[in-house]
From TrEMBL:
Alphabetical list of SUPFAM superfamilies matching this protein: cAMP-binding domain-like, Winged helix' DNA-binding domain
Species classification: Bacteria, Pseudomonadati, Pseudomonadota, Gammaproteobacteria, Oceanospirillales
GO CC, any one term: cytosol
Residues of the HTH crp-type domain: 147-213
Alphabetic keyword roster: DNA-binding, Transcription, Transcription regulation
InterPro entries, sorted: cNMP-bd_dom_sf, Env_Response_Regulators, HTH_CRP, RmlC-like_jellyroll, WH_DNA-bd_sf
Transmembrane domains' residue ranges: none
Pfam families, A to Z: HTH_Crp_2 (PF13545)
Keyword Plastid among UniProt keywords: no
Protein name: Crp/Fnr family transcriptional regulator
GO molecular function per UniProt: DNA binding; DNA-binding transcription factor activity
Length: 244
């Protein structure tokens, strides 16, 4: 579903572009409403559009089989979906699932590639973002193997809260189990523990973050590490040529 370009702009990557590049880039975007549960691309599918979330967020899911799935990255207003295009590839290695409904800026892949060729500042910024994603993907693999479910759940809830821009989330045990790659019973125990510590409240899929500071303490160090790498490489990564 298409809509008018919203304002103010709330995608950090686009906001980080030099003003002239930013205006030209936005002119070739369209604003779309993404629906919860919408699949943007299946593994092996062609990436026809890039998406820059504004107030929605997208899960990137590795699938070994219909019953073996794991979320390996999450994209919200801090990033974009369609990164293989930067490498000259238009095939998605992951399933892109809309996890939080909302608005995004969308651009056809062919137009995006033209902007990459013509705008060095855009290419430099997105290469840095690609590095951030690589770091996050690596950390997810280690986190899934070494860290306890409760700490991973706390981390995942914080990541979701950041991108939903809300303390209230709707997430079933089945969905959380799929996202974290664990059994439903493990999610139930972890959620009960976080609720018992009064960090969250949980009822029939409705989760409310009650104590964000406490949830950060309960989370594994991967949450802080992800935010740190983004801040160091993207936010504090040095001015782009021509920024004004």
């Amino acid at each position: 579903m298409q809509s008018s370009i919203p304002g103010p702009m709330t995608n950090h990557l686009i906001d980080s572009l030099p003003s002239q590049d930013r205006v030209s880039f936005i002119a070739d975007c369209e604003a779309v409403d993404l629906v919860f549960g919408e699949v943007l691309t299946e593994p092996g599918g062609q990436i026809q559009h890039v998406h820059f979330p504004l107030d929605c967020f997208i899960s990137l899911i590795a699938s070994l089989s219909d019953s073996e799935r794991l979320e390996v990255a999450m994209v919200g207003s801090e990033g974009m979906y369609g990164m293989p295009l930067i490498l000259g590839l238009d095939e998605s290695p992951l399933r892109a699932l809309v996890q939080g409904a909302g608005r995004a800026l969308r651009m056809p892949a062919v137009v995006f590639c033209r902007h990459l060729e013509q705008r060095p500042a855009l290419e430099a910024l997105l290469k840095r973002y690609l590095y951030v994603l690589m770091q996050q993907l690596t950390r997810v693999a280690a986190c899934t193997h070494f860290h306890q479910v409760e700490a991973r759940l706390a981390r995942w809830l914080l990541m979701t809260q950041d991108r939903a821009h809300s303390d209230r989330l709707h997430l079933t045990h089945e969905f959380l189990a799929m996202m974290l790659g664990v059994r439903r019973a493990g999610i139930t125990l972890a959620a009960m523990s976080l609720q018992g510590r009064q960090l969250i409240s949980y009822h029939r899929g409705d989760i409310t973050v009650l104590d964000r500071a406490g949830l950060i303490e309960a989370a594994c160090g991967c949450y802080a590490a992800d935010r740190s790498i983004y801040r160091r490489v993207i936010t504090e990564g040095g001015a782009l040529a021509g920024t004004s």
